[in-house]
Amino acid sequence: WNERFFFSFGHDEEIGGVNGARHVSEEILTRLGPGRKAEFILDEGPFLVKGVVPGYEGAIGFIGNREKGSVSAEIKVDCCPPGHSSMPPPVSNIGILSEAIQNLEKRPFSTDVEGYFAGLQYASPSLPWWFRVITANPWLFSPLLKAHMLKKPATAASTRTTTAVTILRSGAKINVLPGEARAWINHRIHPKDKNIENVLAHDRKAINDKRVTVSEFKSDGNIVPSPISPVDSNGFMAIRDSVARCFKCPVMPCLMPGNTDTRWFWNVSDNIYRFTPIVFEKLDDTKMFHGIDERISTDNLVGLLTFYVDLVESVGTSN
C-alpha cells in the first residue's frame, strides 16, 4: 500500500463535476507522477439494506464496482403548423408527442440479471443455505429473480436501461396551437446496451413515427457505462473488511444505478468503488433521495464516521 491519501470534495457533482472533480483528478495524476495510479478509489454509492433477501433479516452492504452510463434524449415534433385553437387540425404536435412518450414507456429496454446474480453469488456464503442453492443455479432461477426485481423501481433499475420523462415543453397561450412540442428523456444506460447510440436507436424503434425526431441532448452529464472494477483487489477487500468490522454483515458487488464523480477518475485507478455506509431498514427508504424529508439518522451518522475511520486506519497500517 501507498500510505498517501487524497480526499476529493467537488462542488458540482450533481451537474456533472466538470468544474470540480475533473480538475481534482488532473491534479492527482500530476502528483502521482508518470505511470503511477491510485491503489483504489471510494466514492458515494449504494448502501447497507436490511431484508432484501427473503428469510435473511440482516443487512447486506452493496458496493458498486460498476456504474451505469447516462444520456438525455430530446424528442421533438413540429409537423403541424401553429394556428388558432378555434380551428384545430385532426392531430396536434402535442398529441403526437404524447403518443411517442406512451410508446417509449410501453416498450422498455430488455432486462439482464446476470451481473446481479454474480453479486448474489459473492454474498451467498453468508446467506441461508437454500439461497446458496438458488445462486448456484442461475439457469433455473434467473426468470424468478427477474420477475421479483421488476416489481420495484429500485431493483428494476439494476436490470436494464431506464427511461424517465423529465421535461415537457410546448405552447405559450391557451388559445394558440403550438408549432412545436418537445420532451426530454433521461436514460441511465445499463452496461449491456454499451453506448449512447444504441440507446437512441432503441428510442427511435420504440416510437416508430417519422413525424418524431429523436436526438441526443448534448450535456456534460452524458457518458457511457463505466469500466468494471475487480472484486479481488486490495481496495475492494479493504472496504469489505471494514464493513464486516463495523456492521457485521456481508457485502455484494453491484451496479450503481446513478452517476458519481468517479467518471473523472477512470484513468486515476483501475479499482473504483462506490459505497455509502448508511443502513436502511428497507429498500423503500431510498425513495426520499432528492425527494420529501431527505434525512440521515444520528445512528447512521455515527456508523458512517466509524466506517471511514476504520477504513483509513486499516489501509494506512496495512502491508
TrEMBL record:
Q: Would the keyword Protease turn up in this protein's UniProt record?
A: yes
Q: Tell me the GO molecular function terms.
A: metal ion binding; peptidase activity
**What range(s) does the Peptidase M20 dimerisation domain occupy?**
67-194
Q: Which Pfam families has this protein been placed in?
A: M20_dimer, Peptidase_M20
Biological process GO terms, please?
A: proteolysis
Keywords (alphabetical) are:
Hydrolase, Metal-binding, Protease, Zinc
The keyword Disulfide bond belongs to this UniProt entry's keyword annotation: no
Q: Which family does it belong to?
A: Belongs to the peptidase M20A family.
Q: What's this protein's name?
A: Peptidase M20 dimerisation domain-containing protein
Q: Organism source for this protein?
A: Mucochytrium quahogii
